[in-house]
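tool_log.txt
---
The assistant was asked to compare two proteins side by side. It first ran the structure predictor on the initial sequence, then on the second. Raw inputs and outputs are pasted verbatim so the downstream comparison step can read them without reformatting.
(1)
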Amino acid sequence: MTEITNYITNDFKAIDSQDSIAVVQEFFDELTFSHFPVIEEEIYIGSIASDDIETFDSSKKIIDYRYSLEGFFARNTMIWLDVLEVFAKNNSNLVPVLDEKNKYVGYYEIGDIMKFFHETPFLKEPGGLIVVKKRTLDYSMGEITQIVENNNGKILGLFVSETDSENTQVTIKISLGVINEIIQSFRRYNYEIISEHFEDNYINTLKERSDYLDKYLNI
């Protein structure tokens, strides 16, 4: 499968902090980005929102509105689920990407990430879903993997789908193994089964959400 970092693009160069508001307003008029990264001497300093730029004085520079920049970004080491979360939390169809030294390397577009999402084994491959919950201090990814594999199950993917100071909920997609036996093993290890009878509904919900994001691209 293609690495998510292959979707990092530089089709349009980042906005410079010294660019005029007028030039950037024209840029947003021609494109459909909700945000776009701003750099100052090659350093990423935040993203400007298209909704904001419309209200700014066209005779000024981007740096004059530095207070309005939004500082969200993704690392080039992030997995696709974490990147998708950055998009969702910031209501954006574009996310700047920085390396481990905070150097700006390009940006992700939501359309490309959704293509990647649809091709992941988590959605594409047939299998069953189990959602389990345990006290945050007690659960272990290693233990979860061991429970599945000890019952001849193969994991297509798993992620923390909900967490707080008390409990953590983990979603697991399994391609092989007897689901009922795996469920009983989780119970023996004091995991609460959230989705024992709702695997199909849960994966449909994921697909519905991805379809919603696809529709968002066309707005």
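(2)
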Amino acid sequence: MSSAIHVEDLSVRFGSKQVLDDISFCVDQGQIAALIGPNGSGKTTLLKTLLGLVPMHTGEVLFFDRPLNAFREKIGYVPQRFEFQDDFPITVTEFMNLAVAQQLDEKAIVGKLDEVGLPASATSSLLGTLSGGQLQRVLIAQALLNEPELLLLDEPSTGIDIVGEAEFYNILKNLNKQRGTTILLVSHDVSMVSKLVDQVICINKCLLCAGPPQTMLTQQKLTELYGKHAAVHNQQKHKH
């Protein structure tokens, strides 16, 4: 199976601060993979580097054996936080159209919203009236407009309640199964990751481990990654 993402000897330094140090991993085509690690471990920086937003780095990044510039249009991205004024008068349809060169017809927008579990009536909703979970679904729908082969998500369940979080991750699983979309997401939720992903990539400035969740989310590895107290808490959550 070919690699959707191939990262080799990737390092990032901001001035005198080493943010990422000699990281190498692969995500196979069709996989769902999760980047996990403590706060400040470099997860978001790694995602931004993959997207070409951190140009000053060393190492190699390939997508389906091609450099970013040859594959950029086939990558969808959902950021950790989408900041906007709640009272800004923009509808879901208008927001979706911001991501494309030519205005979409209503049918195309409704189709993408349906893929993420939103009704056709959502097209006329103001963005500021949506719940956290609904907004995240709209962001994914927008990211799907160019029919991406790869979807990158940074803490996609931020601001979503527990019930909504489970539904949200089911949407990602369905996108992966039905469309064959390769997905790489940043997450703090070890319990949900253990149920969703094919591969876990553990980083704390450097790569600590990578592999299937059954072997990566053990007491020993979580302790190495998060420290004793956090690891025990996450492991108990995983068991339940």
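---
observation on (2): The CA atoms of residues 140 and 194 lie 22 Å apart. Confidence is low (pLDDT under 50) at residues 231-240.
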